[in-house]
Amino acid sequence: MPDQTPPVIPGPRDLTLRPEHAGKRPSVTVLAGPTAVGKGTVSQYIRQHYPQVCLSVSATTRSPRPDEINGVHYWFVSDEEFNELIAEGKMLEWAEVHGMNKYGTRRDTVERAIAKGRHVLLEIDLQGARQVRQSMPEALFVFLAPPSWEELVRRLVGRGTESEAEQQRRLETAKLELAAEPEFDAVIVNDTVGQAAARLVDIMQLPAQQR
Ligand code: 5GP
Domains in the chain and their CATH numbers? Predict the structure, then answer.
């Protein structure tokens, strides 16, 4: 059995806040990064090991995978329902990811959590992160990076969920996505999932009662 105890990383780490943070601890953290870097795995780990983190549940038009639960991993909605949410201005951000399905974050659920004093984590793609940067510049933007390009290729090919043509397409996208790293406030290298998650929670600097 692998060790299930989250590693302890000394913290809180130094983080240079931007003027938009106005010297305050941000209440929204955005985790983005290139395709196949393991954002989903890190957020899954956080869901299991750090219940004090309020992980935003996105809406998506893609079908649930066998182990996914509606309302826990995603809100699975139809294309019509998703378009309605957009038309009604209910999305804080949304994007069509890999030209296939739509994914988005509802503004009201994030705002309700903030009002309750929670620190919300959004695990979203780069297009979504850029939209949040526009509408919520005071959020904290964290880039999840692969240990190396070779490792990113290995992870994408190794998971075997995409055809070869699709893998090539995603690797081209990943190159563009990697170039976005300087737009972020902090970079976490996803070497092992437990360490990456611990670093992220450390960077979020949760209020003492939520640690
Ligand atoms: P998956 O289908 O593997 O769960 O997720 C595919 C991609 O969609 C991942 O890159 C993930 O970060 C992104 N994603 C998940 N939820 C959202 C969301 O609410 N907004 C945006 N923009 N991207 C999302």
Answer: 19-206 (3.40.50.300)
